[in-house]
Amino acid sequence: MLHDLSxxxxxxxxxxxxxxxxxxxxxxxxxxxxxxxxxxxxISLLDWVSTDQLILSxxxxxxxxxxxxTTSLEPQLFxxxxxxxxxxxQPSYCIF
Length: 96
Fold this sequence. Notes:
By secondary structure, the protein is α+β, with helices and mostly antiparallel strands. The chain has 2 domains: 58 residues, no CATH class; 35 residues, no CATH class. 32% of the residues lie in helices and 10% in strands. The chain is built from 4 helices and 2 strands; from the N terminus they run βααβαα. The chain has a two-stranded parallel sheet with strand order 1-2.
């Protein structure tokens, strides 16, 4: 994706994922036992991981700010994710 935007990629991009099965499938570079119904030849994610363009890293659902965009959250967790997305709070999983 970065290549298409003419942005040089020096190191692999870390993608945080709260789905353990997706992380296991990508890091194993092959489908897991329960994904046999999917045609994995068309999953670009596997190619990006195998060519060291992307690193999938597990993250807790409670630390995943993207969760607020896809699910309804309790007020405290919603406020935490909102402040992270707005850049008012540095997430605990980032190393800057």
